[in-house]
Amino acid sequence: MKNNLKVFGTDGIRGKVGEHPMTVDFTNKFASAIATVLAPRGGTVTIGKDTRISGYMFESALEAAFVARGLNVVLLGPLPTPAISFITNDIGANFGIVISASHNSYEYNGIKILTHNGEKLDERLEQKDKIDNEKIQSQEDIAQLRANVNLKKMNMARTNMRVRDAFKDREK
User: 56 lies in which domain range?
Assistant: First the structure.
């Protein structure tokens, strides 16, 4: 079995359908790992997708794994990513999933993870706090902003490691 744990790209995981990491087997194990980390005591997850035919296959694999981990699954059907994000936040879900490969052609698909408030899981790292120049009064303010960014990076790294470790356990 191919053990390629570096599957996260700039926007979740993506690939050609039927090839690692975009297989039903990988998706099922990946979903189980995500549930273990983001909703260890159960909860609710939203799943939305674009209109690619393969989205239905991945939606079923994700749903099966999440239900097996004790989650309530809300299937949103085909919707734009911002709508999935809004609904995830609005209903108080633990996290959300978007099945889409965005601008890539039909033979590709992807899985994006949203936080409980509808943000991309990796977006917290990408943003790194937008600095508002009017609020920065001193070197201490700059130091505090840097500390906040570093704390967010550490928390995100811990979450990514927990997902990776949970996934490794399912690969055995």
Answer: 13-122
